[in-house]
Write a structure and sequence with these properties.
3-stranded antiparallel β-sheet, 10 helices, 15% strand
Length: 316
Amino acid sequence: MDPICHTMFGAALASTGLERKTRFGRATLILGANLPDVDVLSYAWGETTALGFRRGSTHGVLALIVLPFLLAGVMMVVGRLSRRGSARSAADFKWLLALSAISVVSHSTLDALNVYGVRWLMPFDDTWFYGDVLYIVDPWMWAILAVALIAARWQKHCKAPHWFACPACVGLLVAFAYVIAMAAGESISRQVVEASLSDAEIPRMMIAPVPFDPFQRAVVIDGESAYRLGVVNLLPLPRFRLDERRIPKGESAAARLASATGDGRAFLLWARFPFFEVGDSKAEPTVYIIDARYTLDRDASFGSVRIPLSTARAKH
């Protein structure tokens, strides 16, 4: 998910009352909810290199153990430095560690719900796991969490009704219900698509959420030499529409050369439905590797990499 969603989720956790468990409780929950994204620093080595590194070591099982201790330790140091010459209460390490663990795990869990995926087993195994449940920037999650935070602030600063006890808890429950509903939509969509395919063996496919419309899914079907695209509409009744286009995978000698470069290997480690196109420029022959999960446009700012063949040949 995006940083706004992670931040609001951490703030909502804090507003349930967890922030009162220890000094720096709220800051710890918000920082922990964003901490695994420290891997954005990998962009300093180039966008394609970053694709091969992101949502790996800082999101995997080892990070889920190490990062909470690091965050809790830092917060303890900050607490001790800020207490010098004051009578403010000390932070509780056990609670800081618990809140750090909750928030860090929430980050990787939310990231695992979208089509980008997470490598849960890193650094031991590079396998990607995809939830395909939420869009990576989900406006409905934003809305649910925003309403919960506004209501929690109103309850804190105004005289709210007695039954309005914990709006943040309600908001998190609504967010959980929304995730379950979206997962059900993905499952129904998959059944509709599989029922419409005539192949004896169901091919690998992605049933992905789209921006804004929770009742529609984008479909990518992996054939032997090409991809097929389609759309599932869940209302008024679930139905699947298959696009007539076929997206050739474009495997060739030039594609193999491009795949062997550093950028090619990094991109293909990340890509889920890659295909290749050879540029038509005679001045500088180029191979484009594109991920059909995100785009079909080789010039797109995300989901595509350009590899000059001169660079690819130089590697050999």
